[in-house]
Amino acid sequence: MLDFTHNDWKARAAALSFRNQAFIGGRFVDAADGDTFDCINPATGKVLTRVASCKTADVDAAVTAARKAFNSGSWSRMAPEGRKTVLLRLAELIRENLAEMALLDSLDMGKLVTDAATIDAPGSAYFFQWYAEAIDKIYDEVAPTGPGDLALIRRVPLGVVAAVTPWNFPLDMATWKSAAALAAGNSVVLKPAEQSPLSALRLAELAAEAGVPDGVFNVVPGFGETAGQALGLHMDVDCLAFTGSTEIGKLFMQYSGRSNMKAVWPETGGKSPNLIFADCENLDKAAEMAAFGIFFNQGETCSANSRLYVQREIKDAFVEKMVALAKANQPGDPLDPASKMGAIVDGKQTERIMRFIEAGKTTADLVVGGKQVTVDGQGHYVEPTIFDEVDHDDPIAREEIFGPVLSIIPFDTEAEAVKMANDSIYGLAASVWTDNLSRAHRVADAIHAGTVSVNTVDALSAATPFGGMKQSGFGRDLSLHSLDKYTALKTIWIKYQA
């Protein structure tokens, strides 16, 4: 664990240099037209660097490099043990550069550096290690046939995988997709969100140092309407994995139909419910985790538990606990280890959050928070905000806000709670708090979500798939199941003399 003081982190941040060019074919290059965009620290509003703004020509170059590398077999046909060795080395390089990787994400999108240093960056190293260790443990199949026939069922890499990732967990989301795609033998073209490209560019440099061959891992920073769209429409991209909004996920599916019918794996929006039953004995723990579920990462989490359903008989007491926790989780300088919440990613997202809050003030009871603030007179910050007695059909209870805003909705019966929990276009995650084992199983089975956490929040592991249902998309990251989307089943049928 990195145990630096505020001054240590600030000094390290001041000494940091940034990779700001695209990474294509094993080297850093400017955008073809020389265009750049400002990369801004949301905690201060200051420009960190100017980053190459990739467009169609740059995407074409990256895909060409990726295809050339794939066809050469330098990675795609490398022995499994060889790919394993390289990815294990990449995991170690991330660990060796943990403070730098944590700072890049903290400075880029405003998250607490302590979270980035203890959760995000170590998690990225672990996931690369996990998929590296899985490479030589995946077996092909032999189908049952009659005499004289041998049918082999092989799982083969697709070719060129595009990964379009969000700004809320820049390094982690890049890793979740790239580690699995690379482990399967594909070449990757990664487009990080324009708000947070820095850790992806440094990851590319570490991948090359680890021994990933030129062209196998490429990074094209840029905007969704340029670089993202170009990847979606590209005729030589075999698969596109996306994490982001439902609206953009639908666009990528349209791009697939307009181009080469590439596989598209969307992991999109969420409005996760958290159900607190009166038979939960440890309400203090339930409240603590409910606060974590909405205020962690400033609420900028697709699976954030932003709908809190509380059984009416315990609701008032539970609201008091939540208000106290909100007051104890005020935003501060992301580089200060004492801070409890960081900055919102940019001014546009801050304005969106505040529009929801202002509207909520007219329809529900604001019990804590509700203000946009600054830290040391600068930056984009929003107080942890809780609305009580929210109508289930209120926009603050139905739309993804992507900020530290919690809606509390009372319920009387289990059936009522389940009905409201499922009454959403989203189905990414949910939580249930109860000490009744039968209720735990019954409610978990009844809720339509990709992950249902019982007596915890946002349970997650490399060994379990992460993804949703309904308009939260059907993509799955993590676990061995994620390899399915980066591979194809290929049958080889051999006729021989019996």
Fill in the keyword field for this structure.
single chain, seven-stranded mixed sheet, 498 residues, alpha/beta, 15 helices, 39% helix, Aldehyde Dehydrogenase, Chain A, domain 1, Aldehyde Dehydrogenase, Chain A, domain 2
Commentary on this structure:
With 498 residues, this protein is an alpha/beta fold. It folds into 2 domains: 6-268, Aldehyde Dehydrogenase, Chain A, domain 1, CATH 3.40.605; 273-461, Aldehyde Dehydrogenase, Chain A, domain 2. The chain is built from 15 helices and 23 strands. It has helices spanning 6-15, 56-72, 80-96, 98-109, 113-134, 170-183, 198-210, 224-233, 246-258, 283-295, 312-327, 347-360, 395-398, 414-422, 437-446; strands spanning 22-24, 27-29, 36-41, 46-52, 141-143, 149-157, 160-164, 187-191, 217-219, 239-243, 263-267, 273-276, 307-311, 365-368, 372-375, 378-382, 385-388, 405-411, 426-427, 429-433, 451-454, 469-470, 487-495. Strands 14-17-18-13-12-20-21 form a 7-stranded mixed β-sheet, with helices on both faces. Strands 9-8-7-10-11 form a 5-stranded parallel β-sheet, sandwiched between helices. It has a 3-stranded antiparallel β-sheet with strand order 5-6-23, with no helix packed on it. A hairpin with a 2-residue loop joins β15 (372-375) and β16 (378-382). α2 (56-72) packs across α8. The longest helix has 22 residues, at 113-134.
